[in-house]
Amino acid sequence: MIRIAICDDDVKVLAALKDYLHCYAKEKNMQLNVILFQNGIELLKHDIKNIDMIFLDVEMPEINGIELARQIRQVNTQVMILFVTNYIQYALQGYEVQAFRYLIKPINQAEFNQTVTKALDQIWHQQNAYLAVKTRFETIRVRIDTIYYVETEKGHVMIHTEDEKIECYSTMEKIETVLREEGFFRCHNAFLVALKAVKKVQLNDIVLNNGTVIALSKNRKKQFKQVYTDFLGGNFL
């Protein structure tokens, strides 16, 4: 079951979005687990790692939606973040937290349904996309959306996921061929990085959401910045 959180300090907006989701689920003949929060502090106390989609109000007391999204990204890089706001001016700030969409208030049911459908399509793709990895003794399936980066280390290819490090008996070139179509970029001869896991780009490094620092080669920097900009821009209306 898809788990969705709504965080807004306006109880009327909470009720409206919950009703929209109820109507959407009824129309699509599906079940959704919807949880409501009136502030970001309550949301951060919840099990964020197991939420698939979050609707965030941008302007809230105590902690605003942008800062809240930054903290969410520290523990969940896959969750679909959709900002709900009165102002489009916050869109640029959403790039750094890989927001999926901005919904401008007042929101109508038709627009809402289109956005949720696109978000669910991406969620289902992420949850069902796997990479077949040949290890020393067996071939295993690794969910692509859990991979942060791949690196060559002392002649071996290592796949780094959210929870483990897997030695892969394949070549970086073969893995790159598959993962390039899933939002990965070869930022260095020794590194293949998931664009969705990127937190920020420094002079010669890429910092991931989990704090890992990846080398960015000079001759690939320009192309990486263009690909990353396209990746972020493609997530906005």
Structural topology:
Elements: E1 2-7, H1 11-28, E2 32-37, H2 40-44, E3 53-57, H3 65-75, E4 80-85, H4 91-94, E5 101-104, H5 109-128, E6 130-134, E7 139-143, E8 147-153, E9 156-161, E10 165-168, H6 172-179, E11 184-188, E12 191-194, E13 198-201, E14 205-208, E15 213-215, H7 218-233
Parallel strand pairs: 1-2, 1-3, 3-4, 4-5
Antiparallel strand pairs: 6-7, 8-9, 8-12, 9-10, 11-12, 13-14, 14-15
Organism: Dielma fastidiosa
InterPro entries: CheY-like_superfamily (IPR011006), LytR-like (IPR046947), LytTR_DNA-bd_dom (IPR007492), Sig_transdc_resp-reg_receiver (IPR001789)
Domain HTH LytTR-type: 131-230
Describe the structure.
This protein has 237 residues and is an alpha/beta fold. Strands 2-1-3-4-5 form a five-stranded parallel beta sheet, sandwiched between helices. Strands 10-9-8-12-11 form a five-stranded antiparallel beta sheet. The protein has a three-stranded antiparallel beta sheet with strand order 13-14-15, with no helix packed on it. It has seven helices and 15 strands. The longest helix has 20 residues, at 109-128. It has helices spanning 11-28, 40-44, 65-75, 91-94, 109-128, 172-179, 218-233; strands spanning 2-7, 32-37, 53-57, 80-85, 101-104, 130-134, 139-143, 147-153, 156-161, 165-168, 184-188, 191-194, 198-201, 205-208, 213-215. Helix content is 35%, strand content 31%. It has two domains: 2-128, Rossmann fold (3-Layer(aba) Sandwich); 132-232, LytTr DNA-binding domain (OB fold (Dihydrolipoamide Acetyltransferase, E2P), Beta Barrel). Strand 11 and strand 12 form a beta hairpin.
